[in-house]
Write a structure and sequence with these properties.
By secondary structure, this protein is α+β, with helices and mostly antiparallel strands. It is built from two helices and three strands; from the N terminus they run ββαβα.
Length: 103
Amino acid sequence: MRITAESADSFSFTYESSVQALYGEAIVRQVHECAVAWGSPPVRLHAEDSGALPFTWQARLAAVLAQCGCPPPPRPVVLREPRHRRRRSRLYVPGDTPKLLLN
């Protein structure tokens, strides 16, 4: 799989694939979702594919867009509730409990 990028006025994507008849719509949908997550950068992408998996597409697109100087998408903020109980460590040091020492 190879992806090349050129500067352009707006985002566009073309590709050649051996699995285009089977997965063409899914590939285009995934590329556009990734581009929207990256803020629809003004680049023209051309890809040559021979059956790469979806996570490979996403990783390669992220690498190409990062090399083009596009800012990465913001990470979602995960808010956690504070724990109101004491946390116990499950780390057993062999010096404290010799019976747990491996044979």
